[in-house]
């Protein structure tokens, strides 16, 4: 079952979620030519008639900024659990905004968050459907993967 979404569609969803949740302006989307590895990543899975995932990757700076905005504290005082919560919530919000655009019915999983050096996020058995990246101080990438038929 094929769904349609363009990079501008995804960029609008991402920018709206980040602005509403965090009060942060990501600037202009740079297509999907961003970094391929990050220090933080989060994903939510879609299961049902359409299967795939939303994957968010970012640098530590953006993770700290997101947690500080979400928990009304300073970026220097957030702990790793707050950063994970903020990134997972961002993935969940983006996934929730993508879900109504998918064909048929789909359920959204709880977020999964990973942290490490040079984290490469992808979904085994799935192909990149659409992605968007942002540069500057807030290196952020959001990609949607569709499970191969």
Draw up the topology in text.
Blueprint lengths: L6 H16 L15 E11 L3 E7 L1 H11 L9 H19 L7 E3 L3 E8 L6 E9 L5 E8 L2
Antiparallel strand pairs: 1-2, 1-3, 1-4, 2-6, 5-6
Helix pairs in contact: 1-3, 2-3
List keywords for this structure.
six-stranded antiparallel beta sheet; single chain; alpha+beta; globular; 31% strand; 149 residues
Question: What would you say this structure looks like, in words?
Answer:
With 149 residues, the chain is an alpha+beta fold. A hairpin with a 3-residue loop joins β1 and β2. The radius of gyration is 14 Å and the shape is globular. It is 31% helix and 31% strand. Strands 1, 2, 3, 4, 5 and 6 form a six-stranded antiparallel sheet that branches. The longest helix is centred in the middle third of the chain and has 19 residues, at 80-98. It has helices at 7-22, 60-70, 80-98, and strands at residues 38-48, 52-58, 106-108, 112-119, 126-134, 140-147.
């Amino acid at each position: 079952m094929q769904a349609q979404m363009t990079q501008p569609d995804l960029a609008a969803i991402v920018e709206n979620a980040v602005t509403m949740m965090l009060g942060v302006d990501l600037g202009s989307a740079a297509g999907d030519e961003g970094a391929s590895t990050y220090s933080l990543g989060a994903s939510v899975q879609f299961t049902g008639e359409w299967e795939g995932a939303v994957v968010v990757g970012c640098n530590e700076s953006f993770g700290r900024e997101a947690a500080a905005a979400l928990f009304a504290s300073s970026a220097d005082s957030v702990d790793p659990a707050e950063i994970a919560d903020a990134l997972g919530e961002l993935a969940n919000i983006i996934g929730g905004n993508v879900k109504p655009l998918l064909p048929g019915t789909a359920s959204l999983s709880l977020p999964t968050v990973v942290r490490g050096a040079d984290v490469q996020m992808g979904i085994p058995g799935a192909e990149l459907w659409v992605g968007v990246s942002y540069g500057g101080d807030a290196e952020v990438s959001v990609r949607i993967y569709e499970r191969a038929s």
